[in-house]
Amino acid sequence: MPAWKTFYMGVLAGAYIAFGSCLAISIGGACQGMIAAGNLGAQKMIFGAFGLPFGLLMVVAAGGELFTGNTAFLTAAMAEVFP
Question: Is residue 12 within 8 Å of 58, Cβ to Cβ?
Fold first, then answer.
């Protein structure tokens, strides 16, 4: 894949992760009054359950390229070429 396309897909993947974090803040932050008064752990679980999982789901569904995946792929390829 050309470098410009990899960069473009990385920027899109970052935007999808940012959308997931906005979703986590809007849902996890909105349940302070109802859930946090009785159980603070439930609010933290709801906050974490909606952020990264939905961001990664959007990356996979839309076909984005995360930097970490490309780095791991390149490291494995270089380790195979230069033992």
Answer: no
**Does the residue 23 lie in any domain?**
yes
Q: What is the pLDDT of residue 32?
A: 67
**What b/e string do you get for 51-61 counting C-beta neighbours within 10 Å, with b at 16 or more?**
beebbbebbee
Interatomic CA distance for residues 65 and 9, integer angstroms? 5
In a domain, 55, yes or no: yes
In tens, the pLDDT along 30-66 reads 776 666 566 777 777 877 887 788 888 889 898 888 8
User: CA 55, 60, 62, 63: dihedral to nearest 10 degrees?
Assistant: 130
The domain containing residue 34 runs over which residues?
Answer: 18-63
Count of structural domains within the chain: 1
Mean pLDDT of the chain: 82
